[in-house]
Amino acid sequence: MKSLPEKAWNAWHPADLMKRLGTGIHWYVVGGWALDLWHGRQTREHEDLEFAVLREDIANARSLLAELAFFSVVDGQIDYLPSSVPPAVHVAQLWGADPQQGCWRVDMMPERGTPATWIYKRDPSLAMPRGDMIRKTADGLPFLAPAAILLFKAKHWRNKDEKDFDLALPRLAASERADLRLWLERLHPDHDWIARL
User: Fold this and answer.
1) Could you give the angle at which helices 146-154 and 31-39 cross, rounded to 10 degrees?
2) Which stretches of the chain score pLDDT less than 50?
């Protein structure tokens, strides 16, 4: 199957994803949408919809999203991944294409944790109880805790990530600020955000 253009995004809203995935597998929204779910409102436009899923649940997730065709994305290379083929261990992103509408709908990210433990994909020595890291909206929509989202965003220092940090900082609990500061000191010791936490 031929890939869509890289910029052909018309992502679903997280609520659309929730209707399809439900609560029978381990998944949660990440990225900017996760922060907006935490805020309880949409604070900016989102070009994509990123969600993480345990590797053991990838096949189930794909089955629940059977209307989509999935492509592995590695170093800018986008390759079709038949539903019968599990992604290779090094694959960190699977883009879901809607062939009927000619657009990308979701960015599925395999994660290395377990049903009990969340593991930071960029440094597996950073592991936390899953119950501490995955939050839920009043409607039960799961999303990654804000401090962890900001840790992911700290690596690139994009303009939108700076704005996300500025908006999130006043709402972070003292314990979340402390966790994020500790993680940044360990993984990004020169980061500007450390002084602000």
Assistant:
1) 150
2) none
Contact predicate 151/161, CB 8 Å: no
The pTM assigned to this predicted structure is 0.95
Q: For the chain, how big is the Rg over CA atoms in Å?
A: 17
Alpha-helix runs per DSSP H in the chain: 14-21, 31-39, 58-64, 130-133, 146-154, 159-168, 174-187, 193-196
Neighbour-count burial of 40, counting CB atoms closer than 10 A to its CB (0-12 exposed, 13-18 middle, 19+ buried): exposed
Could you say which architecture CATH assigns to the domain 14-145? 2-Layer Sandwich (3.30)
Listed residue (15, 43, 50) closest to 160, CA to CA: 43
Domain positions in the chain: 14-145
DSSP letters, 34-92, are HHHHHHTS--S--S--EEEEEGGGHHHHHHHTTTSEEEEEETTEEEE--TTSPPPTT--
Instruction: Encode pLDDT of 84-137 as tens digits.
Output: 999 999 999 999 999 999 999 999 999 999 999 999 999 999 999 999 999 999
